[in-house]
Amino acid sequence: xxxxxxxxVHCDLCGSGxxxxxxxxxxxxxxxxxxxKCRICGLIYVNPRPKREHLRTFYPPHYFHGSGYVGGLSxxxxxxxxxxxxxxxxxxxxxxxxxxxxxxxxxxxLSKALERGWQVKGVEISDYAARYARENRHVDVVxxxxxxxxxxxxxxxxxxxxxxxxxxxxxxxxxxxxxxxxCHRGVLVIECPLFYNxxxxxxxxxxxxxxxxxxxxxHMMEGPPRxxxxxxxxxxxxxxxxxxxxISKKVYQTQSKILREILSVLPxxxxxxxxxxxxxxxxxx
Length: 285
Description:
alpha/beta, seven-stranded mixed beta sheet
């Protein structure tokens, strides 16, 4: 029965059940899982959505190879931004050099931190990727979710979630657990896409609204609903503040070189406009 596969949820940010349906959806086992936007706080999420027990099946071995995953279980795909992230974390950490990565996949990021002499640990929902990390990168990675694994309170100086928060069924709960395992003034680093904030996202959304009005058909997205949330800068910031964090630094990324050059001459208040990714550094308070 479909009721065994899916669930309807309220907004994870404000708890409201009042939303409007957007013209994008995933098809999961014959059920249309739409992007919806909370009418109260603006958070965009998938509703209805697959139940938690089905999420693990969305990350088979082939997901971690090729274009399906940024790192791709290979050092050849090493993102140079990792060095910059590690430098910033190192300058921000107070006294605890233990680093936890949530959703660490093949632990490439953690292996680079390990080379710097840090104590590292990872959590990964895919047994395939976690086993690869242990056997090939010699990194301590536990198979499971942050909610399932029990870490001691205040045992880490930094928690890193790179392209993970949007996949989690309950981001606020996950951030609360991260807050518990961080030491005093510990650093939380979040990196995630900003599809609806990007220029492409805004233009394509407008186009789909027009298409919906003309032919009455929404756009079906490929693959299973791995991204359960779509953040914009304001909803991500609200979520972090409500979860007990103080944002210390935001780094926006924009794909188009021409757009980057145009935005670079605009006043500071336009920072982040049309950006398609964000990297946030925050401290536990």
